[in-house]
Amino acid sequence: MSVFTSWNGYKGNGIGAKKRIFQVRKSCRINLGNKACSYKVTMGSDINCYKLEGLNCKSSLSTFRIRDSNGGIVAEAKRKQSNSGVVFGDDVLTLVVEPHVDHSFIMALVTVYGLNRHQI
């Protein structure tokens, strides 16, 4: 994100894709020394938007949420653990997605989030 001010997602396969589906913009704020990062996702208008939230800018990719325009959580990623409690690496995630949400759209947002964090 330091080079790009925003990321655009297009529908289609290949270079000829012309219909923009979503745009992701970074917004950071500082609260009591903790720099929290979030990304605003707009889909055509500001009315239909989502928000990607991480714990803070220095945390790993491993814990973040995607909220809808009403503030409800539509997806959440956490570090995966085995049944015996062994925590896997930062890049092994469990992703829980609400059933009414387009899963391919959520995976696109997870990918953009990882790219923005320089962890993919």
Automatic annotation (TrEMBL):
Protein family per UniProt: Belongs to the LOR family.
PANTHER family: PROTEIN LURP-ONE-RELATED 11, PTHR31087
Entries under Pfam families matching the protein: LOR
Descriptive protein name: Protein LURP-one-related 2-like
Signal peptide: none
Species, as recorded: Pyrus ussuriensis x Pyrus communis
InterPro entries for this protein: LOR, LOR_sf, Tubby-like_C
